[in-house]
Amino acid sequence: MEENESQNKEIQGFLTEHAAELRVLSGNGAEGAWRRMRLGMYRSRYRLWASVLQYAAIVVLAFILGVVVTRYAGKDVSPVQFATVSVPDGQMGNVVLPDGTEVFLNSGSSLRYPARFEGDRRDVYFSGEAYFQVKSDEAHPFFVHLDDYVVQVTGTSFNICSYPGLPVETALVEGKVSILDHREKKVAELKTNQLFRYDPGNREMKIHPVNTDVYTMWKDGKLFFDNESLGHIAEKLERWYHVKIEFTDDRIREKRLTGTILKSKPLDQILKILTLKESLSYRIQLKPEECDLVTFSFNP
Amino acid sequence: MTDLLLDWIKKLLQTSSYLYPALLKGLFKRPMISREKQSGVSRKEQLFSSFFNQNYQAALLLAFRFMKDEMMAKDMVQEVFLSLWEKREDLIFSDGLRPYLFVAVKNRCLNELYLNYKNIPVSQLKESTVDVVDEIPEEDERLIRLAGQISKLPPRCREVFDLVIFKGMKYQEAADALQISLNTVKTQMRIAYDMLRNIF
């Protein structure tokens, strides 16, 4: 027994000296480790398969991504903003649209157009008078929406005169336009130097060959009228000079005149010219808060 | 749109052109469906299994002496054995492979230490002078056998043993910790020594 005791002391000493190592060894037998090893071994066997599948998955994903990206590339998800340019009476304006199209606007006109042309067409909404120089783009036809009809072009220069109450006129200077109805069905096709005129009153449509200069001269600051009623001329003057014109007698309204006037001239000079020719007289009443009033009457 | 799609396909082909050789290499180097028997364990695995069981503890001991940390030592040994398994076509799992095993363990440990610490503590470097021999040193064998016996100690005895030897507690401290009498502790320790005696 005593031998054991002293031996025990030795054993204890040895054990304590190598306690760390003994602890690790006794806590990690070969059996448990082997089980873990087996898992690792099998994992490596399928590692190749897994990597093949990984590559395949990446390829498939990349393909899908590619398809998605190309479908939606260039498509802005945000809604398009529209801008409206309005030119008041007595002024002219011009605008360059997102595609480079230039539009010269006459007084009393407004043009509504998007900040960005999307899709395979270009649409604008217009009323008044304007001279369009549309940037040529066969793939994206240009549509001008008027109150009464729609003008479709691919790349041309033309003039549209579409004031409420008046016949709507489209004059083609260069290129080709199609006139469409509200359902965008083709109603007519215009060739150079042709005018399309639609009278909303009697729903009549006409095409004539014209000298387009007549219809575009306003751009250069000239007002031209060819056997036009004074009433019509008066409307144009109203718009340009921002005045109201009245007639004491309706017959005066029906008088026909031909001529050209420079818009830069002051109003009374123009009125003088008009009245001289026709033996009429006029009176201007200045109204500070509103448009000045011009009244035509027969010479006494 | 089709242009963009074609572009994408071109890009995919380009990237896959350098994935492809890697895949081929892997495919031919190792059979995807193992030639090993489906049921039962192959010869190679059996040999590996024996080799593992015979040398695991010695490898672990060596690794522990380098890493000074149980977890790390286990990782190192596991990695080495795994790498041996991956090279199984070129190896024979027998006693003769033992020196190779120990060198591999030592190298991996030193590598790991170097990567993490840049400067290897001198105490750890000391182990590198250990000669790698065919036989496991006798002292280490004794340790391994002792460890084996320790893991076979009856549960109560093991509890006490752990506190006294591994945690370095005095008998009384252990008694208090386990809420048993000092005598019980003494008895359990005596049982332990009896079981370990013949190894010395």
Write up this protein.
The complex is a heterodimer of chains A (300) and B (200). By secondary structure, chain A is of the alpha+beta class. Chain A has 3 domains: 2-72, no CATH class; 82-212, Jelly Rolls (Sandwich); 221-298, Phage tail protein beta-alpha-beta fold (3-Layer(bab) Sandwich), CATH 3.55.50.30. Chain A has helices at residues 2-17, 19-27, 30-72, 212-216, 230-241, 250-254, 267-278, and strands at residues 82-87, 93-96, 102-105, 109-114, 122-133, 142-145, 150-153, 157-162, 168-174, 177-180, 186-190, 194-199, 204-209, 222-229, 243-247, 256-262, 280-285, 292-298. In chain A, a hairpin with a 5-residue loop joins strand 2 (93-96) and strand 3. Chain A is rod-shaped. The mean pLDDT of chain A is 85. By secondary structure, chain B is mostly helical. Chain B has 2 domains: 43-129, Rna Polymerase Sigma Factor, Chain: A (Orthogonal Bundle), CATH 1.10.1740; 138-197, Arc Repressor Mutant, subunit A (Orthogonal Bundle), CATH 1.10.10. Chain B contains 9 helices and no strands. Chain B has helices at 2-29, 43-67, 70-86, 98-117, 122-125, 138-151, 155-166, 171-178, 182-197. The longest helix of chain B is centred in the N-terminal third of the chain and has 28 residues, at 2-29. Chains A and B meet through helix 1, helix 2 and helix 3 of A and helix 1, helix 2, helix 3, helix 6 and helix 9 of B.
